Amino acid sequence: MKAVQLTGFGVENLQVSNIDKPSPKRGEVLVRIKAVSLNYLDTILVNGSFYKDLSFPYTPASDGAGIVEAIGEDITRWKVGDRVAIQYVQNWTKGNIDRISNQVRVAWQTPGVLADYVCIPEHGLVRAPQNLGFEEIATLPIAALTAWHALVNQANLRIGQTVLIQGTGGVSLFALQIAKAAGAMVIATTSTSEKAERLKSLGADEVINYTEYPAWHENVLSLTNGEGVDIALDIAGSDTIAKSLLSVKENGFVGTAGFISGADLPLNIHDHKINMSFIRIQGLAVGSAESFTALNRAIEINNIHPVIDKVFPMDEVQQAYIRLEQGKHVGKIVISLE
Ligand SMILES: NC(=O)c1ccc[n+]([C@@H]2O[C@H](COP(=O)([O-])OP(=O)(O)OC[C@H]3O[C@@H](n4cnc5c(N)ncnc54)[C@H](OP(=O)(O)O)[C@@H]3O)[C@@H](O)[C@H]2O)c1
User: Fold this and answer.
1) How many domains does the chain fold into?
2) Residue 101 and residue 190 in one domain
């Protein structure tokens, strides 16, 4: 079978190899992977800037979707032919995360899924939404579940509230779709006028170009009668967190999902209203399989279709990673293994 392998840090070291097809052990399911999507995390794992202890050759990518091809002994939940998605935090099956469930991330503590076949423990799979094809299903495990867990489980999003999202990447566009399905108003920030138009066409109520308006939190306040939004989902870290805090109203929620511009946070308790405005800052790290199942129900009921930027064939894997690194994409980058 074919698999992508990284032989040393750097996109130029990604290559398609022929390796042995795995067989499912007791409690495992063999999945024929049909599509994989890339996340910002995949780029920093491959370029070596995030985690130095990968052992090579390394099979990358966490987000995959496919069909159950075979089952090992003692499998009760899956049968051959089931359409499945991979659960990123494999041991987080339900409820709040704890020390035990906060372990075993795909393509970090296990091999990745950019391969024709992978073996996954039965609890590490989730039934795919019926209204989506495999390229769409592959976009869900990290980005969509992060947005869902942030807005629905942590921020307790309600109809009529206002949500601030940042940029046109995977997490933010899922947050846009989920917030609109929940009946919220969405204010989005982005870097270019073309992307601003795209955000509007995807349902954003208001869009602020942060290249034109670097103090964009002031625009957010003007758009909300000086009050601020109920929920801000911060994906850039250093450049944005202070402005996210200044964009929320009293009792507002700031979810910190990402660190695209840096991981150091320039915060001051007084300047950024943290105590006086009773702001809740919530760390985020994807979600449980139970939440993934609830997300998939919402996707079916609301007929949500993920925004796909581009689909690459497996042998153009390097180009797929480069496109994500360049940041020109809108939505998810997918690699097809059909
Ligand atoms: N904690 C979690 O559970 C979790 C899960 C998934 C992802 N993440 C993290 O969340 C972040 C976003 O992930 P993603 O996969 O959605 O990324 P992505 O698809 O690569 O999207 C990134 C987008 O962010 C915007 N952006 C870039 N630099 C920015 C800046 N300085 N200020 C404001 N916006 C900026 C750009 O959109 P525009 O050009 O439109 O502005 C860019 O396209 C990453 O840091 C990732 O590691 C965390």
Assistant:
1) 2
2) no
Q: What is the pLDDT of residue 51?
A: 87
More confident residue, 232 or 328: 232
Q: Is residue 176 part of a domain?
A: yes
Q: What is the pTM of this model?
A: 0.97
Tell whether 289 is covered by a domain: no
- The average pLDDT across 137-158 equals 98
> Same domain for 159 and 262?
yes
Name residues whose C-beta falls within 8 Å of residue 183's C-beta, 6 or more positions apart in sequence.
159, 160
Closest residue CA from atom 34 of ligand 1 = 167
- Domain that residue 111 falls in: 2-139+306-336
Mutation probe of ligand 1 site: the residue of 63, 199, 220, 260 with most atoms within 8 A of C-beta? 260
pLDDT given for residue 247 in this prediction = 98
